[in-house]
Amino acid sequence: MSETTPLEPVAEPDSMIKAAHSTKEIIPEVTFTCQVCFDPIAATNEVTNICNDSCPGIMCPGCIASYLKVCVQSAHRGILTRLNCPICIRPLNMHRLESRTSNDDRIDSTLDRFRSRVEGACEMLCPECHEPCNMLPEPPAFEHAIDSLTCFHDETWPTAFLNAGEAVAESCLRYCNHHVAANDLLSSLEGTVNGSFQEFVHELIGHIYDAERRATLFLALMKRYPFEYTPCCSRDVCFTCKRDGHHEGEPCNAYLPAVEEMAQCPDCDLILVKGDGCSSITCFCGYHFEWEEQVAKYRLKTLTIKVLTCPSKRAAFRRVASFLRDRSFRRKYGILVVAQIPSFVLQLKLTNISPVLFYPPWSTNFRTTLNDTMRRRRHRKMTARNRQLYSDLVVSQIPSAVAQYRLVQIRMAICLAPWVTTFKAALMTHVNRRRYSALVRQVPDVVAARVKSEMRVVFQTVVASIVPEIQSRQLRRLDSLFGSAPWSTSVKSALGSWVERRRLIHKYSAVIAEIPMALALRQRQASVVAMAQDQGPRKLSNLLDSEVTAAMNQMLLTQIHRQRYQELVATGLVDGKTTETMGGKLMQRPRAMSAA
């Protein structure tokens, strides 16, 4: 073979190619461990180099989606919020994150929500159509963005950036990666860009993919050049004061509301201005508060800042700050230094003593003496602590225990004394006398009430005994009426037999039986009064019980006579008027008896 003959690559046989393809199935797939959930993930699903090429983070798509969801929930609409790397805690470009987590719908939808909340800071109300419009230029397509470009001479760079020079492109890339602030970028571009500065910045914003970078640069531009046109109606507006028209030569402060008309949300610190409506305000973040209260707080805050930043008060503020700084230093010094001095001194003494303790021959005796001294010291401390504990748990309870013991002894002495029985008997006698004296004072009233009820019963009994006489009078009247009739003989004989039977039943039987009882009851009442004055209350109570029993029997008899009288009146054999007349005459008899 000659030396000039070129070597041709040797093609591998098909069998070797097939074997190489089949080794993927034999060799196990490489896996990594997620630094958040510590689950194994395949190399094809891992998310690495999250914020830059040197980022050590390795995460699974699920943890990335959960992290982004938390970021979206904590981001308020209209407030510029950055995405930070979950591992390095450094600002993260959204274009780089999407390139690392492509083909994941959960992450894409979460980033879309985050983008809409951040871009809300560039919205304003159009004075023409009165609809909210976003003043930001339209974002570029993912593949046409300059966020991930590294080489200046890349063909994907827009023509305006290529004409501006490599320094401008480098500044734009550093801004996209959060290495340069927006104001610094505008300051560097303002002197190097040829042509209209605002148009160049608008074109730059249109080629940046990250929503936070776009909104931050736009707001920084609006601070310098606030006059814009609404994208919906092309109406002249001032973005700073949100007014219609371009007020050339007049500052925006002339159109902004005063401090007295502004309030700050306690939750998200957003400055709000209220046009009209009630005092109950709901912020963009969902927090509810009262307008007057927050206006007063914000006014106090602004006045405080104004006083502290006033040039005439700056010297006093410096003295106050110096005093507070000195007090803070002393407090830290007392906590971190002074409090550690005893332990440091003790440690220093031990360090100085320890070499001496091990020198022979007296080291053993000295160590023993030192141990005994420390043991006695610990014993004294324990004894003092035990004494204090004994004083708290035992000595403080002695007075109450002694008082309780004395009460128990006095109670036992009283219960076992021989005079206790006599004292109890005398006490019970006195109590019974008090009770029975009250009963004796009530005896005259009770006796008078009972006499009145008995006299009423006697009267009712006498009235009931006259019923047969009244019936006989009525019969004689009927006899005189029907005596001349031819059938009077038969009627008279039948009526006479019936009257005779009734007369035998009712004639003076009840009166004769109850007169002795009434006299005996009268005598018994007199004897009750005399006995109540002479004898004890116990016999009097027994006698009263028997009197109550007799009165109950008398009431039953009276009820029976009353029922008989009502039956006679119902049959017509007794005249009610005659009974009333007789009752009036008979009322005099009980009075005469009572007078006797």
TrEMBL record:
Superkingdom assignment: Eukaryota
Name of this protein: Aste57867_14160 protein
Organism of derivation: Aphanomyces stellatus
Designated gene of the protein: Aste57867_14160
